[in-house]
Amino acid sequence: MPLVPTSSIVDTAREARVGAAAFNVIHLETAEALVTAAERTDIPLILQISENCVRYHGSLLPITRATLALAEASAAPIAVHLDHITDAELVHQGITAGVGSVMVDASALPYEENVATTAELTAWCHDRGAYVEAELGEVGGKDGVHAPGVRTDPDEALAFVRATGVDALAVAVGSSHAMHERTAVLDKDLITALHTALPVPLVLHGSSGVPDDELRRAIAAGMTKINISTHLVSVFTHSIRQTLGADPSLVDSRKYVKPAREAVAEEAARLLDVLGTPATVPGQYATQAPARG
């Protein structure tokens, strides 16, 4: 089926108070696994290609075109998104190639430069019908504001959204990038405050370190787009270790990559069910979203 716009997946999830799943592509095998998960569940999925992924593959177009081809050939509702892009040229290449959305990451710059850069690229993307996500500062694990103890201020976030015109905002509420244990506890009261204050959907980076129940509570409190990468990468690697450990004589990579691909498909499908099911939580997290405008 044709690619689904990221805006459609995110806005529909926000209205239904479920999570818009955004899982990262590392290589073709993970892209295949994630598409399989979406097909098995028929739950919308955003496939994310990060700048780190682009650097690993040497350039943007091969992995992006492969991911777009998988998404377009699938019967599942899938969008393709560029994640944590700091290079404006990669934004231009990706949107021109057919990607429907991008996270413009100018968070390492001083605030005013972040605003100016993000606003300029947002205007360029909007002129081409593309959806833009951004953030105020770097995510935890990268010496930034999404470290577990740091929090996004609602007033500052609202000023940033108004100044840049972005469509979604990544916020700091207690998660951290590259966590290998799912032990993070999020600030649900702050999520509710941000959800009430901002006219755009909230994005949770570093979700790999957040347990299932906490993710569902965060969604009920007002979080919408949920980014997961490290957890699924760990599932892939753990499977390969198990397969090679059981048969050290294996040399055909297909024989250990195939079960790893299936392991990621199974876990991604499980996570899609977790994120795509409305959470049952106390009424204190039932604040309605404000209208856009």
Q: What is the topology?
A:
Layout: H1 6-16, E1 20-24, H2 28-41, E2 45-50, H3 51-57, H4 60-73, E3 78-85, H5 88-97, E4 101-104, H6 111-127, E5 131-135, H7 154-164, E6 168-170, H8 188-197, E7 202-204, H9 212-221, E8 223-228, H10 230-246, H11 254-276
Parallel strand pairs: 1-2, 1-8, 2-3, 3-4, 4-5, 5-6, 6-7, 7-8
Helix pairs in contact: 2-4, 2-11, 3-4, 4-5, 7-8, 10-11
Polypeptide structure, described:
The chain is α/β, with parallel strands linked by helices. 49% of the residues lie in helices and 14% in strands. It has one domain: Aldolase class I (TIM Barrel), CATH 3.20.20.70. The chain is built from eleven helices and eight strands. Strands 1-2-3-4-5-6-7-8 form an eight-stranded parallel beta barrel, surrounded by ten helices. Helix 2 packs parallel to helix 4 and helix 2 packs across helix 11.
At CATH level 3, the topology is TIM Barrel
CATH superfamily: Aldolase class I
Per CATH, the architecture is Alpha-Beta Barrel
In total, the number of domains comes to: 1
Average pLDDT, rounded to a whole number, is 89
**What is the CA-based Rg, rounded?**
18 Å
Helix/strand-derived category reads: alpha/beta
H and E order: HEHEHHEHEHEHEHEHEHH
Number of helices: 11
Q: Report helical residue fraction.
A: 40-55%
Distance between the termini: 31 Å
Strand content: 5-15%
Instruction: Provide the CATH top-level class.
Output: Alpha Beta
Q: Main sheet?
A: 8 strands, parallel, barrel
Pfam families: F_bP_aldolase
Binding site for Zn(2+) 2: 105, 135
Binding site for Zn(2+) 1: 84, 177, 205
Protein name: Ketose-bisphosphate aldolase
